[in-house]
Amino acid sequence: xxxxxxxxxxxxxxxxxxxxxxxxxxxxxxxxxxxxxxxxxxxxxxxxxxxxxxxxxxxxxxxxxxxxxxxxxxxxxxxxxxxxxxxxxxxxxxxxxxxxxxxxxxxxxxxxxxxxxxxxxxxxxxxxxxxxxxxxxxxxxxxxxxxxxxxxxxxxxxxxxxxxxxxxxxxxxxxxxxxxxxxxxxxxxxxxxxxxxxxxxxxxxxxxxxxxxx
Length: 214
Description:
By secondary structure, the protein is of the alpha/beta class. It has helices at about 15-20, 40-50, 65-80, 95-100, 120-130, 165-185, 205-210, and strands at about 1-10, 30-35, 55, 85, 105-110, 130-140, 150-155, 190-195, 195-200. The chain has 2 domains: about 1-100, Rossmann fold, CATH 3.40.50.170; about 110-214, 3-Layer(aba) Sandwich (Rossmann fold). Helix content is about 35%, strand content about 25%. The model is unreliable at about 205-210 (pLDDT under 50).
């Protein structure tokens, strides 16, 4: 059983997807701590309802990013977590922290990386006129929205899509592939070679990756 901590900043819908997955007795991971940098957010309520310990580490209380990150690191060590899942965590972690947790920290991003890193991904996808977008689960490197890709889901952009409708469709896929990626990592089937991921004993087709099923 892999002990996991989840870092959030807001409503925690991806956190909920992970909580639901971990509720299955056969799931190879469990969430031992949820940390939010914002007090009073919905994600904390989700964790508390599921009986998961929570902690607020408000970045506004720290003079530097380094001191804030160090406090998170100490909380993670105390929890016994062996893997971090970033789930809508809206703070940039410094390189020292990331390197401490290299290949032990996952993130989900609402685009097909390496395209459209950063914020406002759906607006930028529409402005660029791309025909497809999606979401990506990847290991975290110090560079923004960078690191070995574990899995992606692709959706077609309809002519009448706007940023809100597109974001909603992408979010639906996020809730599917994040638990899938966590399961693969927890089962020990994911290996990082250079900047690429190999998945041992993969039992899905390319179609499953492009159009993942719940």
